[in-house]
Amino acid sequence: MASMVVMQAKQPSFFVLPSSLSDFNGIRLTTSVQYKRKVLQPRGALHVSASAKKKILIMGGTRFIGVFLSRLLVKEGHQVTLFTRGKSPITQQLPGESDTDYADFSSKILHLKGDRKDFDFVKSSLAAEGFDVVYDINGREAVEAEPIIDALPNLEQYIYCSSAGVYLKTDCPPHFETDAVDPKSRHKGKLETESLLDARGVNWTSIRPVYIYGPLNYNPVEEWFFHRLKEGRPIPIPNSGIQITQLGHVKDLATAFINVLGNEKAFKEVFNISGEKYVTFDGLAKACAKAAGFPEPEIIHYNPKEFDFGKKKGFPFRDQHFFASIEKAKSVLGWKPEFDLVEGLADSYNLDFGRGTFRKEADFFTDDIILGKSLVLQA
């Protein structure tokens, strides 16, 4: 049985990632993002316009996207509550973040402890609290959104983190928000949630990221490459390596989530959010090396049909062209990515992997199978 704990941290415990290769400057509301590596310094200042102060609930918020989103919301003066199971620390101090800034942030975060799949608890606890806006960061199925809608009949906006994975595969990329969707995709639950929100007459906004990267990323995106680059290993890439994909930095995604808040132009709209440029698989391997200061890697191409890896994956990306247009978000929201790919990868490396922190241990099992066969063929 879930239980509700609403608390405001008075004396936060500090969790500091080791080393100090670079500072965490995050995304400031009115200041430039700065790096110690001048060559990778982003151009221009980042400004996030303030909106009326809201009582905001974030479903999730302690792992990746929500860590950066909640900071921006608190900076704007909103009252922010995280709904989690309480299995992870509610806040964590980020690399380079001052004790004062972290203490100020963590003292303002509220926590509602429970399991979102305990629908009765969700209804009763949310109805008792009342919220103006919901950011649903970790919702996967439509049934998970229903009790939230039921509990908050006067909700001003439901902002949903969907996925570009809902689009039907096409021979004419990039994907646009008006493109056909795939009801059989592994993200069909997100697609069904979007449909539910619309059918229930909720004032919703849906964000569809492509691949997300950046510090604290729990998916093996850039980390997969960094592990291999660190060990000086060849990078095994399926087929030709010219498959085109797209990555968006988590901090840029967070600013997009801020930009749709209370924005009438975003009501009942879908927006693709990702990086400005597309990149090939081979290009991504080289970009990771450049960002982290490693030599250009040796790349080995292989035919995945020749291998049986069981339940293991030989490569962290879908083996196809997969990218989306972000023009709607740029024109309607006035949003634009602050990071180019190499700058963003450097930010991720310097604030995370380069400090010796990562989510998954290196696993070269499939690499060794691929490389073993390649060496035999070369011989």
From TrEMBL:
A Pfam family it matches: Epimerase
Lineage: superkingdom: Eukaryota
NAD-dependent epimerase/dehydratase domain span: 56-273
InterPro entries associated with the record: Epimerase_deHydtase, NAD(P)-bd_dom_sf
Protein's name in the database: NAD-dependent epimerase/dehydratase domain-containing protein
